[in-house]
Amino acid sequence: MASSVDPLVVGRVIGDVVDMFVPSVSMSVSYGSKHVTNGCDIKPSISVNAPKISISGHPDELYTLVMVDPDAPSPSEPSMREWIHWIVVDIPGGTNPNRGKEILTYVGPRPPVGIHRYILVLFQQKTPIGHIDHPNSRANFNTRLFAAHLDLGLPVATVYFNSQKEPANRRR
Question: Three-state SS across 59-81?
Fold first, then answer.
């Protein structure tokens, strides 16, 4: 079933991005053959394209997915916290984000310096969202305010991974 929030506390995901919550939906995330687990390392070169995600639940339940980087531009000075990488709304339960409505297209991790956390947060919607304006900027997004604006409540699932800039000669 849903996982523990302990790694989210240790990784400061709870606190920096979301408030304490009880996971109630399973969300599986993978980039190619690499399954994402909390705190794992994912190279920017394998995360250029959106991950494959499957969400549990029933088709009559709708979900919103956001992906953020709270460490932009650098973990020691996150002046652009949070950098929004992806927003998808109206995702039917038991499916994946391809079945939802993409509000902001996916942009893969491009950490300029340091180790950045990339956080995928899933909310259960109370009603269909339909059309919403996309943010004017990817910088200084706020997951809590976004959720409050759409009356989403607390997350139902969250997973995060770490990524850092790859040496130029090692990119594949």
Answer: CCCEEEEEEEECCCCECCECCCC
Residues in the chain, pLDDT under 50: 1
pLDDT the model gives residue 69: 98
Residues 122 and 129: their CA atoms lie apart, in Å, by: 14
* C-alpha separations of 37 from 90, 124, 132, 160 in Å: 24, 21, 30, 7
As to burial, measured by CB atoms within 10 angstroms (0-12 exposed, 13-18 middle, 19+ buried), residue 59 is exposed
- As a whole number of angstroms, the distance between CA 44 and CA 18 comes to 24
138: left (phi over 0), alpha (psi -120 to 50) or beta: alpha
Q: What is the pLDDT of residue 3?
A: 60
149 Cβ contact partners less than 8 Å away, ≥ 6 residues apart? none
